[in-house]
Protein 1
Amino acid sequence: MKKILMITGDFTEDYETMVPFQTLGVIGYQVDAVCPDKKAGEYVKTAIHDFEGDQTYTEKPGHLFQLNKSFDEVEFDDYDGLFLTGGRAPEYIRLNQKVLSLVKCFMKSGKPVAAICHGAQVLAAADVLCGRTLTAYPAVGPDVKLAGGTYVEVAPDESVVDGNLVTSPAWPGNTAILKEFICLLEQQ
């Protein structure tokens, strides 16, 4: 059974967390959802981001998402892939040195990495984007460029694959990012 590490945090985007967590579980992968400084059984609050015609998304309270593994127990060698959720969580989880170290290990190893929406902020902070092509929520495009990556704007329901990295700009891209992430996992 393939094991996926999902790094998330408070005010992660609801659909960008719950849909991948449940979908990957349905097809038989074990998904360990973790958050820095939290333990298995604790929760993160989610936020629902919607596109209602404003200049950016709107944000509404989401659900409580229960973590199923303690962050302190995570070891890189235990996992076949990494999924970085979006929303506001990446703003602060990218400040955690263990998160950055894990991201660097996954990217250097060639194991599949998926990052949706603002998840690219974690990749940028880990300094793993030099020479990589990816997408993200458009407001994160400058972060990608400053980190040495090539930002590609695609429709919200699309994804971009560059080697072991698959990205999508927002939750409408769940189907696209998951399809490509699963392909990468199955190629291992």
Note: The chain is about 30% helix and 25% strand.
Protein 2
Amino acid sequence: MFSVAQAQEYLNTILNPQDYDDFCFNGVQIEGLSDVSKIAYGVSLNDDFIEKSIEQGAELLLVHHGIFGKDFINLHGVKKKRIEKIIKNSLTLMSYHLPLDMNIPYGNNISVLKKLKLKYLKTIGFGMIGVYEKPISFNEFKRNLYETFPRSELQIYRNTEMISTVGIVTGDGSGEIEKYEGLVDTFITGSEKEYTRNWVKESGMNFINAGHYNTEIFGISNIANLLKIKYGADIIFIDVPNNL
């Protein structure tokens, strides 16, 4: 058993949620048992995730996408049903959003950089830029993509033959693309908009949509493993795949 309060304090010292103006509360969003032993972790809070966590006997739900919005007073519909089920089963809900995207070395963006064998260069907006020491062919880069995102239905817009500088904004990051124009030859994110195809064509940039869910599996897995190492927690990944 370990203390939820101590686990939150430990993760807060690593992720520094106070440094982010997020649109949700980071940390314990719903209080359940004070001491727990089993963690169910995953990308997004939804009914399937909650049900599977209960079936596995979890006491702490650890997610990247928890309850969004900082005002819980008006509870109705889907949000009310989810919260009601969590409370009835004495579960604790803990969530980290932007701090988990941006953290080095445990966050989503840096994890994707490492898996693609890129060297971290700098942070821009909600993402990061990585570089290859020597440019690689697009075909080699494509193989790296499929190894990193084996379940994604990748949307790939190719405009160059060689890859050297890559921008990464995991999750819903297509709106960040203008910040990377002229700085990278390739941009990876988990979403796209109607104008994306024409924008990257005109800018000469390669674009890869690897899916919101599939670009954000890494960070939550990393911090769940930190809790396993620190407290001996029993952890289980609750996979509720989403191709979007």
Note: The chain has a mean pLDDT of 96.
Protein 3
Amino acid sequence: MKKALLYSIIGLLAIIFSSCATSSFTRGNQYPQMYEQKPLTLLVMPPINNTNHVEAKDLLYTSITRPLAEAGYYVVPPFLTMEVLKAESAYDAELFINGKLDKFRQFFGADAVVFSVIDVWEKQGFGIKTNIHYIIKSAKTNEIIFDRSCDLYLDLSVNSGSGGIIGALADITASAINTALTDHIKAARKTNEYIFMDIPRGPYSEYYLNDMDEPADKKDIKRTVK
């Protein structure tokens, strides 16, 4: 009788903990401000580049818009954003990430502004490693409504399965060539893909405001992808 009662309690606790774990990793719980603020128009700022890879800023910038548009948001065209920002000497996102964003609402009609900070972008072994932090801030209230980081390693190694010393040397050579020839834009696209995979769907999506219970990954993620 005591054992039966004990097992019942253990089972109940397991259900409770399981329920809590599930509910704490939903889009609604991870990004409540996205549902409260209901942004429609997003403006993507040029990335803040803290690395020595000078091309990283432009490479990442050109690949952020697509996943956001596919998620159901209207994104101010990057070329228009850049033209205006350059004309106003406001190209550096560092000047605005901690400041007021109401000007972006006035000039562009933006509801929220997307910032990204590149901390790592380099070829490492037979692959490309990136570490990027993404922040979306409301242009109305200046609040952070989306905050994620992705530590991603794009594995470009080749394994032919040939075996033996000759096969191993061939794989090493092929891996080196593959790493040298792969454009860094591929790593940028993969990072953006994982970052915005869990973003609440926007007004142009059929799932708008109906995806709060969808499972979401942790805010800070680490991935190795091929």
Note: The longest helix spans residues 2-23.
Protein 4
Amino acid sequence: MIFIIAFSCRKPLKLIEIQGRALGSEFTIKYNPADSTFTEAELSSYLYKFFTDFQNTTSLYQKSSELIALNQANSKDWIKVSDSLGVMIAYALELSKKTDGYYDITAGALSKLWNVEGIEKVQPELPEQKSIAMAKNNSGYQNLEIKHLNDGYYVYKKNPHMVIDLASLAAGYAADKIAEYLESRKIKNYMIDVGGEFKTSGKNILNDWIIGIENPVYNKNSTQTGSLILKKILLKNTSMATSGNYKNFLKNKNKRYSHIIDTHTGKPVEGNLVSVSVIQNECMKADALATAIFAMGEKRGFEFAAINHIPLLMMIETNKGKIDVRNTLEMDRYLKKK
């Protein structure tokens, strides 16, 4: 279901803001209309069509989606896919190789088996080892290939039972495509937020866009002191994505399981890492990288980001329930000083 609300904030900021819900989450778009004559109604109409088409392409819940058809295909031939699927799958496989499989879009069967999504779940039944082994056998990016020919993208599935899941980069890709549309309509200053993945251009009137990163252990309903926003990031002409386990997780016998799967074990990622934020030019890449680094864990993920000069901010929960913040040198220039 897609809902869109448009309203203006013309005094004193002169920004247009459009909000809605799509891809199972909320989105917000803010822009300065000074350089364009197109209307909020035109953008709302575009967004409704874009998200409808995009969900029909990437959804694992709409029975008629292109991705479900691809997952159900038993063909041993190369299967032609849309450019949207092709671009996302091509980058995902590139990142899988670069991260030694810690990022893997073919782990959909494992994700479905653990079913950690949406809300906190306490004391659920955990999957049996036999089921985990079976789902793990049907995963593996090495069993998926892609090629780009003159007439588009083609995918080859060596294992017909694999389940491709693009949730880890779809929101970022959507933000990139919306940005393309805004720029085609001469919008130079905008902020796009799709499910917590941000794409920015220009300024928020006079200043760079400021994005707050939540304190993962902050509880609004408690007497805890301090701020809900732990860090503020300054963004201009770039993108940021955050991956964490403090909203989507399940808990069993005091053990907390992340919604992000470690495909090497077939189980959710464990450890004290609770949030990873990454900055890249393309929001799709930031989205996927945040998931990949979270899956690697605190030590390996930080080393990967440092070696590859990735602007990264990590939040680690201590045994005392406090948050330690670590960031690479490349992230320093984006952090808003107090």
Note: Residues 66-100+127-163 form one domain.
